[in-house]
Specification:
Elements (H helix, E strand, L loop, with lengths): L2 H24 L5 H6 L12 E4 H11 L1 H21 L5 E11 L2 E14 L5 E10 L14 E9 L8 H67 L6 H32 L16 E4 L13 H11 L1 H22 L4 E11 L9 H4 L3 E8 L5 H68 L5 H36 L10
Parallel strand pairs: 1-6
Antiparallel strand pairs: 2-3, 3-4, 4-5, 5-7, 7-8
Length: 499
């Protein structure tokens, strides 16, 4: 060895020994046999920690997340509004007592009680009891001492014969109930889509961190080996700098992956709540498991069925269909407004305690009340304006329905394509990792035989690490792709293959 080479070697040793001593103090010694087996980067799965499978995560989110509870309340609110609309058909009981006494003289005592029973066909059945006493009263209110009982019906003859305000309100409330159910499903599906994406990201960052840790361990092992080779005179001292630089590069990568994994863990923790509505933390040793979503394949022959299912179950489409039904009900009511308002009332009368049958024809011929009322605007300006407005509103909602139906079909097709493409990519990327590993192992053998350089070996290993990271990224995207299909079809059972 020339004096120049001896000086360079001494300088390298001076630079690297303090760093190695610091490493040996902060890092426990590694088993070389384990490190050699760990060169199968990309296929090793960390077995440490408590598995937190994706199906279990979904169950927790659906059971306890605030958005899940809000979705339930949305549906309950819509049902409460439907009960409110039914209130228009609630029988109503009204009673009144009116008395006048002046100067010691009792002028009158009126007692009136009435029950009105609305019918779904737009008519009203009325049951009433009247009793009048005193010396001075309106002659048309005269009754026997026992009072008068009446039973009658009021029928619309023109406007409101097909529909009216209360029937329209009931139809709209039914549509709002359907929209509320769709909103509940939509909120849950969007929540699960977001949760699936974040779970996939958590898995990806977990795998990237494990890959970075393996890469750092390999670089550290190789640095020690290169130092030994330099000490034995089998390698040039510059190889120590090459090995040290590679280790430092991989340490930086590990720091980055640990930071990304920390953020992904925080994002996932945001979905975890207990049954009392309190946020809970993700266990420190929890690890992701993609059981049920590890592969993305769905038979392409199911595409037509999934599109048909989406048109029947997609929440956004169901909501706009409910709006179409509400607009149709308004349009029908506005159409009725173009007809004059006419109403007929007929009621039979009988004194309380009469022996004769109430519905006897001979008795009703001489004991009844009847009325007919007709009302109509002259130019129908208000009614025609409402008719035009409701027609435009209905047409608008129909266009929205047709547009959204097309968008839903495209969403289903895109989600199916993503899943199918991910299946192909996963197969190809798995092969890429395997081939990159074979090239690296072959290069390692050449390096040990003195036929290759450390630089080329590091390049081969970087390729293995990069391909393994790409595989982890694809595996993490499967959950999001399945979530997108569940969101498009409105069927969240598509999120998980099996349990």
């Amino acid at each position: 060895m020339t004096s120049l080479r001896r000086s360079a070697f001494a300088l390298l040793v001076t630079l690297t020994i303090p760093w190695a001593r610091a490493q040996s103090q902060g890092t426990p010694p590694r088993d070389s046999a384990r490190l050699r087996t760990s060169m199968l980067v990309g296929t090793i799965v960390d077995t440490a920690g408590t598995p937190f499978p994706f199906p279990a995560f979904v169950d927790v989110v659906l059971a306890n997340h605030p958005v899940s509870q809000q979705a339930r309340l949305v549906a309950e609110q819509a049902r409460a509004e439907l009960r409110q609309a039914w209130g228009a058909f609630d029988p109503k009981l009204v009673a009144s007592w009116d008395q006048k006494r002046f100067g010691g003289t009792e002028y009158f005592k009126y007692f009136d009680a009435e029950m009105k029973i609305p019918l779904p066909i737009g008519a009203d059945v009325t049951l009433a009891f009247d009793r009048t006493m005193g010396r001075y009263f309106n002659p048309d209110r005269r009754t026997t001492g026992a009072g008068t009982f009446s039973a009658g019906i009021s029928l619309p003859l023109g406007q409101r014969i097909i529909t009216d305000e209360r029937r329209t309100a009931l139809q709209q409330a039914r549509a709002a109930r359907d929209a509320g159910d769709a909103e509940r499903v939509g909120l849950l599906n969007k929540l699960l889509f977001s949760a699936a994406k974040d779970y996939g990201t958590w898995y990806e960052m977990w795998r990237r961190r494990a890959i970075a840790q393996e890469g750092e361990a390999l670089a550290d092992f190789r640095l020690q080996a290169v130092r030994q080779r330099v000490a034995n005179g089998e390698s040039a001292p510059i190889d120590t700098i090459e090995a040290l630089l590679e280790l430092q590069r991989r340490q930086v990568t590990r720091y980055e992956t640990e930071a990304s994994f920390f953020v992904a863990t925080l994002n996932l923790t945001a979905y975890l709540w207990d049954s009392e509505g309190r946020p809970v933390a993700l266990p420190g040793d929890a690890k992701p498991v993609l059981d049920g979503v590890e592969r993305g394949g769905i038979d392409s022959t199911r595409l037509a069925g999934l599109i048909d299912q989406a048109t029947r179950r997609n929440p956004d489409l169901l909501k706009v269909q409910a709006k179409v039904k509400q607009a149709e009900a308004e349009r029908l009511l506005a159409t009725q407004g173009l007809i004059p308002l006419a109403e007929a009332k007929l009621a039979g009368l009988a004194q309380r305690g009469a022996d004769e049958a109430f519905f006897s024809r001979d008795r009703l011929d001489n004991n009844y009340k009847a009325a007919l009322s007709v009302s109509s605007p002259v130019l129908f300006l208000k009614e025609r304006g409402k008719f035009g407005a409701t027609g435009a509103k209905l047409e608008f909602q129909e266009y929205e329905r047709d547009r959204l139906q097309r968008d839903v079909e495209f969403d289903v097709r895109a989600a199916m394509f993503d899943l199918t493409n991910l299946e192909r990519l996963l197969d190809r990327q798995t092969a890429n990792v395997r081939n990159a590993r074979l090239l690296r192992d072959a290069e390692q053998a050449r390096f040990e035989n003195g036929e290759s350089t450390l630089l080329i070996l590091n390049l081969r290993e970087r390729l293995v690490l990069d391909e393994a990271a790409k595989l982890a990224s694809l595996q993490g995207k499967v959950a999001a792709a399945r979530g997108a299909l569940a969101l498009a079809t409105g069927d969240r059972t598509l999120l998980i293959i099996s349990r």
